[in-house]
Amino acid sequence: MQLNDRARSNCELGLDICAFLFLPILVLAARGAAPLAGMAGICALGLAGNDLAAAWRRVRRFAPLLAALVLWGLVSSLWAIEPHRSLIIAMRLTGLFAAGLALIAAASKIHAPQRLMLSLMAGFVLSLVLAAAQFATHGALTAALSRRPYIGASLNDIEDGFVLLLPPICATLLLQQRRIAAGTLAGATVIAIFLLAGDAARLGFIIGLAAAVSLYLGWGWLSRAAAIASVIFILAAPLILPSLANFASLRQDAAAFKISVWHRLEIWSFVGGKIAEKPMLGWGLDSSRAIPGGDVIVPGSLLYLHETWLPLHPHDAALQLWLELGVPGAILLAALVVCVWLALATAPWPPLYAAAAGGSLVTALVVGFSSYGVWQEWWIGTQFLTLFLILVLARLSSIAAALRPDQ
């Protein structure tokens, strides 16, 4: 797709606008992250499409794996519980994955990365204000447009956005010697993170920061070690996670801490049994919502909220791939995570920025392995937009580090 200079400039302006809108949308209407990623993908295609050979080189690690995941999902519709649902999800994933690959390819084609960063930071600050207003007024900003009553978890989505983007933004600002801006943004965001209700985001943020410190001290070899650990965890997830519910003391402690944590253990226990029934091929793409017995109330939950064995999805990416797509799905997920870790290990970035990006990756894995359904469009869009922004910020960090002998 050949575009003239003016059209490419307009595409880049479109990406600036998407960067600005990204986090505010997570505050006000998180599901809008998926169409926003789609629009950003169209703009990115306009930038990257002039040189398809170069664009392919930038995505060749990921494109075959994502294509294989979609194709295997399509094949799984032959035995899925709801075949039409599997087909619909496969088509949606095709569009989202295409947009994500276009964003990856276009990250190095941005002519004004500093302008995009300023757009992102303006949106970041606006989202902090909007999140504070929503929190203080119990959702007054969206009450007239939402059918659901406001609850604390309504802001979990923006909390995830904060924890994913704060480390790379602050690392870039520090490398640009904008320490006051970095400190102010970090302070305000950390307060927001710990005031909001998302336990998974907070846990991921803490673990991600610890990982960032470790990666700073041993970037290359630790990234490769993390890749190996990720493979072991994903492939062994059906053995590890369901077994946690066998420890009565752990279940009691989980219930005392938070009912949702106790329920998570029960879900994983149930899912482990269902994976064992069809370990090779799985139950079919997005069949989690219709697994036999999933709508039965968990014994003992009558004391709580009448929780069922499997509400919509397993709340763990590894278990969901195993449950729905069997061994091939788990292998493809492991391969994708390994590719990301190895790309980080060999990225020509300043150590400080590479460590921050690695911390964000760890945070994303913690959230993905404890919270959302793996096929939720807004979550996929959020991850691709975050990856695109991290790749663009990496260019600014590299430029800033090149001007500093100590980096």
Can you tell me about this structure?
The protein is mostly helical and 407 residues long. It has one domain (5-237, 315-402). 72% of the residues lie in helices and 0% in strands. The protein has 15 helices and no strands. It has helices spanning 5-28, 33-48, 52-59, 63-76, 83-106, 113-137, 156-175, 179-195, 199-217, 219-240, 248-257, 259-277, 317-346, 351-368, 377-402. The longest helix is centred in the last third of the chain and has 30 residues, at 317-346. It is globular and about 60 Å long. It starts with a helix and ends in a 5-residue tail after the last helix.
Architecture blueprint of SSEs:
Blueprint: H1 5-28, H2 33-48, H3 52-59, H4 63-76, H5 83-106, H6 113-137, H7 156-175, H8 179-195, H9 199-217, H10 219-240, H11 248-257, H12 259-277, H13 317-346, H14 351-368, H15 377-402
Helix pairs in contact: 1-2, 1-6, 1-7, 2-5, 2-15, 3-5, 4-5, 4-13, 5-15, 6-8, 6-15, 7-8, 7-9, 7-14, 7-15, 9-10, 9-14, 10-13, 11-12, 12-13, 13-14, 14-15
